[in-house]
TrEMBL record:
This is GNAT family N-acetyltransferase. Keywords: Acyltransferase, Transferase. GO terms for molecular function: acyltransferase activity. SUPFAM superfamilies: Acyl-CoA N-acyltransferases (Nat). Gene3D superfamilies: 3.40.630.30. Its EC number is 2.3.-.-. It comes from Dysgonomonas termitidis. It is an enzyme of class 2 (transferase). Residues 8-173 form the N-acetyltransferase domain.
Length: 175
């Protein structure tokens, strides 16, 4: 199966995921890793879930999948393709693993499954990730998955009292 291995599976977002998404999206501790500036309401997230169920990924230019433990049927995170560009066959990729499930290899497995799906089913040519340089765990994760650093954006994201650089990492499908 394309989106599953012995340990995890990637599945579509369901209405039942609302409360979990609400918790993750509104965790201010996680906002520094993305572009979130304000909390999301359940109404907005419910609409997002409905749109995800109804829209084609090439229309919405994004795909969010939930990461479940295969045996326990527990949702441990999400993985996203965003800015899907069908013409140039590329997409950004982002991942979130719930804090209770980090450092267990699940993120690496999810990146591998999503990469296989993106390259062998969607026929994308490349995936890329923007990672703040202080997020050394994510940089190591993407390096382990075969992503290469291709550039640094200087003073790319604002923090409370300073700006921070962001690393652009890329995985190109040379097949």
């Amino acid at each position: 199966m394309v989106l599953k291995n012995s340990y995890i599976s990637l599945r579509a977002v369901e209405p039942e995921d609302l409360d979990q998404l609400y918790g993750w999206e509104n965790s201010t501790a996680l906002w520094v890793h993305g572009n979130t500036l304000a909390p999301y309401s359940k109404l907005i997230l419910r609409q997002y879930i409905n749109d995800a169920l109804e829209m084609d990924i090439f229309q919405s230019k994004q795909l969010r999948l939930m990461i479940d433990l295969t045996d326990e049927k527990v949702t441990i995170g999400t993985i996203d393709l965003y800015e899907i560009d069908a013409h140039n066959r590329r997409a950004g990729i982002g991942i979130l693993i719930d804090e209770a499930f980090r450092q267990k290899g699940y993120a690496s497995q999810a990146l591998s499954l999503m990469g296989d799906y993106a390259f062998n089913f969607l026929y994308l040519h490349q995936l890329y990730a923007y990672i703040s340089v202080s997020n050394t765990n994510s940089i190591r994760l993407f390096e382990k998955a075969g992503y290469k650093e291709v550039g640094i954006f200087k003073d790319w994201i604002q923090r409370v009292d300073k700006f921070e650089d962001v690393q652009l990492s890329q995985l190109v499908n040379n097949k």
